[in-house]
Amino acid sequence: MDSLKANVINEVRKLFLKKKTLAYLILMAMMSFLTALFISNIQAKLIFIAVNSISYPIMLLAIFTNSFLPLFVFMAASDLFPGEIADRTLKLVLTMPISRFKIYISKLIAISSYALLNFCVIFFVSLLSALCLNIKITSITNVALSYLADLVPALILVIFASFIVQFFRSGSTALISSIFIFIAVKTLSLFNTLVNNNLFTTYLNWSSLWLASGTNPFRELNLLLLLLAYGIIFFTAGYYLFDRNEV
Amino acid sequence: MAGLTKIYKNGRGVKDITFDVYTGDIFGFLGPNGAGKTTVMKGITGLNTIQKGNVRILGYDLNFQFESAMRNVGSIIETADVYEYMSAYENLKFVSRFYKNVNEEDIDNLLELVNLTKYKQEKAGKFSLGMKQRLALARALLPNPKLIILDEPTNGLDIEGTVQMRNLIKELAEKRKMTFFISSHLVHEVELMCNKVAIIHEGRLVNSGISIESIKKDFNSLEDFYLDQVKEGGKV
Q1: Which parts of the sequence belong to the ABC transporter domain (chain B) (predicted)?
Q2: Domain residue limits, chain B
Q3: Which of B5, B45, B96, B177 is the most exposed place for a label (fewest CB within 10 A)?
Q4: Which of A200, A203, A210, A199 is closest to A146 using CA atoms?
Q5: Given a cut of 90, is residue B235 above it in pLDDT?
Q6: Which of A91, A96, A99 sits opposite B77 (nearest CB)?
Q7: Distance between CA atoms of A200 and A73, rounded to whole angstroms?
Q8: Which residues contact B167 (CB under 8 A, 6 or more apart)?
Q9: Residue A55: strand, helix, or coil
Q10: Using CB atoms and an 8 Å cut-off, which of residues 54-73 of chain B contact chain A?
Q11: Using one digit for the tens of pLDDT, what is the confidence trace for A181-195?
Q12: CB neighbours of residue B156 within 10 Å
């Protein structure tokens, strides 16, 4: 467990020592504030507004989980897996007294913590912006629960990204390919309802289903199990490929 | 190491490599480029999967007790790579987290040993090749391992850097009683640095570890011995 803890710290440090990681976090915070500013301005000037100002943090969550989150997760996964193969630095950790299984887990934890931090930044900045700019929020509990619920598919996305990038040996190729694969899957699900209902990418903004049609415990449990199944499959396949990786 | 075999898809690789490295040895692993030295080095550090044979380090089986086996090993494989976006200090701190007994003082002492104290907070990406080699060696030495595995440690170094590296290895073996396993294609380098040598040629071991002192009794130099051995194997 000591080696796992040591490598989790190392992987998180590696991710945050790269300037772009922090830059994207700041960018997300700025975007959250500027969007709120824009909404408050059009609210003041127009009689009819298309944006539901009551759920601004939730609206932002929907945008984030379907666009920026996948981008950031693919970026972090590309950096920590194929990016390190290309930089010839993966061997530096592979020759430490730690098993490959623990290395894989620690990299997943590092990417997940980056995703979690993004959720926190958007949550707090959108809430504070809404309060400062007088955008009404009816229930903070509802907003918090939505963010918590969407963490589950976000973690599955982290596991998925860590699996996909195993096929590549260069960070940039992995990032571009992952984005294309994600867009292809999303596009495919637009044309086929059956595919759409069974793909985990449909539920990245899981909380929106609850808000639209209320909570149905059996449906939510069914979806949770579907997401977990995806998680188990991608984790197993991803670790298998990582373990066979020759550096 | 017993019967280590690793054949790549293109048919190249190493076959049935067997030898022992004993405590206190500076063991040279000599062979031309492409002979399979790095494949063996990667096999004994778990960087590639071996198809046959087994590797035991200090009694631990590498396949089943990887963490215990690697706890007393420091290595530089293929090239002296470091995290270029980290400072020299951070590169060593990265290693220290895996070992309870390594503290800040050890990091400072090691930076001094490899003459990098002045550049402690400087990003490794700005270092010259020689400085990177020394930082990589510091990474390998930090946990005070019993076995150091170095793949072509003087590759790319100038004359001064080569002499510095050679002297440092000899000093560490003598003062800290460290065991070294060093691969090289430079016969003179091995002769000056090591006390035992094994020769690999076209993926096969020509001999499995002879004292250089005993070689010099029968041959003028290690070079003559090398040519004789390879010729005997029908390879030249």
Answers
A1: 2-227
A2: 2-232
A3: B177
A4: A210
A5: no
A6: A91
A7: 15
A8: none
A9: helix
A10: 66-68, 70-71, 73
A11: 999 999 998 888 888
A12: 13
Percentage of chain B with pLDDT > 70? 98
Would you say domain B2-232 falls under CATH 3.30.110.70?
no
Confidence class for position A212, pLDDT limits 50, 70, 90:
low
Pick A137 or A224 by higher pLDDT.
Answer: A224
Nearest to B193 by CA among B215, B212, B214: B212
Report CB contact under 8 Å: B100, A98.
Answer: no
pLDDT at A207: 87
Q: Is the Cβ pair A94, B47 closer than 8 Å?
A: yes
Chain A touched by B97 (CB under 8 Å):
yes
CB contact (8 A) between residue A87 and residue B81: yes
Hey, are the CB atoms on A246 and B48 less than 8 Å from each other? yes
Whether B98 sits inside 8 A of A6 (CB atoms) is yes
Shortest distance, CA B27 to any CA of chain A (angstroms): 20
Element holding B210 (H helix, E strand): strand B204-211
pLDDT in tens, B29-74: 999 999 999 999 999 999 999 999 999 999 999 999 999 999 999 9
Cβ of B78 under 8 Å from any chain A Cβ? yes
Range of the domain at A119: 2-244
